[in-house]
């Protein structure tokens, strides 16, 4: 009987303790959920949507015709990135043309490991990749969308996918001396210099050994040449690159590291942009 009473008392004590601990934990989880709900989605600089056609068998077929005319030489007949001129673009150095059948994309507004949005693909087709892939602004917007539809057809997992977006917290900060100084501190704290170098010229101590997922050498970006930034050079573009990472490459996602301290990202961006005298378009 005494033993039973002890169990009752012990059970009551544990219940009280659980309530005391559970309150703060539940509140913290609720605050985290509300914070994510309030996060804004990064705007994507693309052409107006007025010319976007519907997705159907006809527009996918038309997209293939455009692909065969404009994309096949690099990305290959089957979209595997092994077109007849692919090797001569970079030889043994990354990046090589994207393999659309693998479902791995660098330039995304989605979290690491997720497929890109349609708008991400459209942005890349529209603006190209500086130094590697030309811009296709000469194509009618409707034709660019059709190419996007065809590219998606090469990887079945696009069907019905709802990728998780990179939440955007805050916005570009004024490029003041204080912000740039804080960004420099972040650059040092996260050891960005190990790859990009102390002066941002892509000559860090790890730069000579970096490789992509396909075992091609992958030189880090020279941050003093913003017009060469593959994923764009606007503050919003850099935020997307830092927080989403470049899947398949050596640049990881930093969204977990900066969660709750996103202001540091905007300061880091100001520091990176201060390394170049070029203007951002």
Report on this model:
This protein is mainly alpha-helical and about 280 residues long. Helix content is about 45%, strand content about 0%. Strands 1-2 form a two-stranded antiparallel ribbon.
Defining traits:
Cytochrome Bc1 Complex, Chain D, domain 2, globular, 281 residues, 1% strand, 2 strands
List the helices and strands and how they pair.
Elements: H1 2-38, E1 40-41, H2 57-70, H3 72-75, H4 86-90, H5 118-127, H6 141-153, E2 167-168, H7 177-189, H8 193-196, H9 235-244, H10 263-274
Antiparallel strand pairs: 1-2
Helix pairs in contact: 2-6, 5-6, 7-10, 9-10
Rounded radius of gyration (Å)? 24 Å
Range of strand content: under 5%
CATH architecture of the largest domain: Orthogonal Bundle
In helices, the fraction of residues equals: 40-55%
Reported for the largest beta sheet, the result is: 2 strands, antiparallel
CATH topology of the largest domain: Cytochrome Bc1 Complex, Chain D, domain 2
| Overall SS class | mainly alpha
Mean pLDDT: 86
Number of domains: 2
Alpha plus pi helix count: 10
